[in-house]
């Protein structure tokens, strides 16, 4: 729950954006201009006053420190990144309320210093470093484990402590927290190096995985700290990290799926990238936020261009995913049988749920046989299958079969399955021709009472022709027609991913021509939700 200032700000901005949407965003923003924003919106309350912690109540310990419930055997644990986020929010709330002469300011200042005091006992010294430990097992890493994103975020907390108090010890603490970011992974630090590329690793145990938001976040917090620290060493690594991001960022792009990566397979090299697709819209928004902030910090046009292109991926992804998913109702597929589902949830919508709408997942009941079958519109050449479950309601055993030549052929069989990464996401690369039906069957729910299926996708092995077919089918939609892309013979010779790239190129060129302020785009996206893109349907 947010404070009244933030409520007023959101009302203010939503009013402004409603006017923009009504008058300006015709045909995906063909006409753009700027209007004056109410000063209170853009200046006085352009950020959020957070709620004070409630010591001893849900989510906090008896001292008001955030205490997260991970469920299962892990239970309640301190996540030092979440604790740092609280501290930063408390300090910003304190500063704003002080400007407003609000008596509540003192309470936020106390909450901030309570977190700083907690860190004094939590941090671990190693040589000249200070480390921020995680004291629970996660992602295959046994505790204690450490993370570049958390090191830099907590350094920011302590540089704020120095700004508020003038005490040099907090300056020294911030510097010691940054130090292991400049030490290579094989020497116990967080720095991955490959040729001229460096990357600040969010995860180093059991292996580095080039988590994108971790590197971007570390850069931004490092830059924030160095405003005060003014270290040439920190500045040098910041500049190297920015240059490395510029050279690696689009390795995370997955144009053939109109999607973007969250990280790479553990141990992968940038010279041979193996990207793990992101299935969390929250991380898409975080990537966009960091691109926006890096653009403002560096003035580098690369980050402006990348923001617009990533934004375009989000505009077109759901449309493409549904069109490319051969088990989607929109592709003419028909759900034949489903056994063991909770009837209050909709399996059809879950199959297409790339937006990860929390209302659209499907629920299996573990006490019954759990099967569904889908009749395809015609025989298909299946190239890949992707599905995602809710954490932690996933099956340990499941099979996927295809009806080929009048018999069921096993496409996927998993026993004692465990999710390999940050989400219960399963991907299988295949090449099976003549598939007429798909059958999914699950069992062994890891002792959970149910299984929750977020989405289910089956794609064809057709390269660029698959992409071309999706956009040909959707070319009458405003969001596609706006681009003026002709689906002609020229496009039919492109490789997989190149048709989608052509679409994104056209989007970026159009928006750059109009010199769109990415702050406005980001505010629109953040306040109205990821589905509210700046275009309108025809009247």
TrEMBL record:
Biological processes per GO annotation:
carbohydrate metabolic process
Task: Point out the signal peptide segment.
Answer: none
Supply the InterPro entries for this chain: 6-hairpin_glycosidase_sf, C5-epim_C
* Pfam families per record: C5-epim_C (PF06662)
- SUPFAM superfamilies the UniProt entry points to: Six-hairpin glycosidases
Q: Enumerate the spans annotated as D-glucuronyl C5-epimerase C-terminal domain.
A: 140-309
Annotated protein name in UniProt: D-glucuronyl C5-epimerase C-terminal domain-containing protein
Native source species: Endozoicomonas numazuensis
- Organism taxonomic ancestry: Bacteria, Pseudomonadati, Pseudomonadota, Gammaproteobacteria, Oceanospirillales
């Amino acid at each position: 729950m947010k404070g009244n200032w933030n409520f007023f700000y959101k009302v203010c901005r939503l009013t402004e954006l409603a006017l923009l949407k009504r008058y300006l965003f015709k045909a995906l923003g063909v006409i753009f201009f700027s209007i004056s924003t109410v000063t209170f919106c853009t200046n006085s309350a352009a950020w959020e006053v957070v709620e004070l912690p409630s010591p001893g109540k849900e989510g906090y310990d008896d001292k008001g420190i955030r205490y997260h419930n991970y469920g299962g055997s892990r239970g309640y644990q301190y996540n030092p990144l979440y604790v740092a986020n609280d501290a930063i929010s408390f300090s910003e709330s304190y500063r704003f309320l002080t400007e407003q002469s609000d008596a509540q300011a003192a309470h936020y200042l106390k909450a901030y210093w309570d977190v700083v005091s907690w860190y004094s006992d939590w941090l671990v010294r190693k040589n000249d470093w200070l480390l921020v430990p995680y004291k629970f097992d996660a992602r295959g890493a046994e505790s204690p484990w450490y993370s570049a994103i958390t090191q830099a975020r907590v350094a920011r907390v302590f540089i704020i402590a120095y700004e508020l108090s003038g005490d040099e010890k907090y300056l020294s603490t911030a510097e010691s927290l940054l130090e292991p970011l400049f030490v290579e992974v094989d020497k116990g630090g967080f720095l991955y190096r490959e040729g001229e590329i460096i990357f600040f690793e969010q995860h180093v145990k059991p292996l580095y995985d080039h988590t994108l938001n971790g590197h971007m976040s570390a850069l931004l917090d490092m830059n924030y700290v160095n405003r005060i620290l003014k270290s040439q060493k920190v500045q040098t690594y910041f500049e190297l990290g920015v240059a490395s991001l510029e050279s690696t960022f689009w390795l995370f792009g997955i144009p053939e799926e109109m999607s973007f990566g969250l990280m790479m397979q553990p141990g992968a090299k940038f010279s041979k990238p193996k990207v793990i697709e992101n299935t969390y819209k929250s991380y898409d928004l975080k990537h966009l936020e960091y691109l926006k902030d890096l653009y403002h910090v560096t003035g580098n046009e690369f980050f402006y261009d990348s923001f617009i292109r990533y934004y375009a991926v989000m505009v077109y992804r759901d449309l493409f995913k549904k069109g490319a998913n051969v088990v989607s109702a929109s592709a003419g597929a028909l759900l034949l049988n489903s056994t063991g589902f909770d009837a209050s949830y909709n399996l059809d919508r879950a199959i297409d749920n790339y937006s990860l709408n929390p209302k659209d997942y499907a629920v299996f009941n573990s006490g019954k046989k759990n099967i569904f079958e889908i009749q395809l519109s015609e025989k298909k050449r299946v190239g890949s299958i992707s599905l995602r479950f809710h954490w932690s309601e996933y099956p340990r055993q499941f099979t996927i079969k295809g009806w080929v030549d009048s018999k069921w052929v096993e496409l996927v069989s998993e026993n004692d399955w465990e999710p390999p990464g940050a989400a219960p996401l399963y991907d299988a690369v295949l090449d099976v021709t003549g598939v007429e039906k798909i059958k999914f069957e699950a069992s062994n729910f890891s002792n959970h009472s149910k299984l929750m299926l977020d989405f289910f996708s089956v794609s064809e092995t057709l390269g660029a022709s698959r992409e071309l077919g999706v956009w040909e089918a959707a070319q009458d939609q405003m969001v596609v027609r706006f681009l003026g892309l002709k689906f002609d013979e020229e496009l039919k010779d492109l490789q997989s991913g190149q048709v989608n790239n052509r679409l994104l190129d056209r989007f970026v060129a159009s928006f750059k021509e109009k010199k769109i302020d990415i702050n406005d785009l980001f505010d629109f996206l953040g306040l109205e939700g990821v589905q509210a893109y700046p275009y309108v349907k025809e009247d």
